[in-house]
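Re-run with default settings, no changes from the original entry. Doing this only to confirm the output is reproducible before filing.
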Amino acid sequence: MKLVDSIINNVIKIVMGCSALVLSVVTFMQVITRFIFSSPIAWGQDIIRLSFIYLVFWGGAFCVKEKEHLNIDILLTSISVKARKVVELIVNIVLVLFFVFIVYFGLMFAQSGSSQQAPYLPIPMSIYYMSLPTAGVFMIYYQLKEIFNQIKNFKGNEDVGGEQA
């Protein structure tokens, strides 16, 4: 399992790194060509959009892995530890359902983009749209891992024979 985690983590980091690098370089080139040469690179907009989309969605998957996603914990801090664990488990299950929704409709959206092309490059729009369901799959993976860890910790705490403070 650690090998799978390592591979997935590295793939996500590589895609994010490459997206950030391409985004920075092409944006810089766009600024230079637009303001110095008064002639922007036409295909630059397509590349910037593609790299930004993958950086955002795959970065979102990485945030789920790191548990850095949006969290409003004012309710959680006001309840007991045991109730907090139950609420966190319920929230994580709801998140998995939401990520399944993202994957399902993201695939439908990507399929609809197969007949469209990017404005300047001969790239099907489905490549842009596939960022959503692919990131959603990674989000589901990381969230299910978290749920299994929570369930394992629930059972581990019950075996000790007492409530944790």
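The radius of gyration is 21 Å. Residues 159-165 have pLDDT under 50 and may be disordered.
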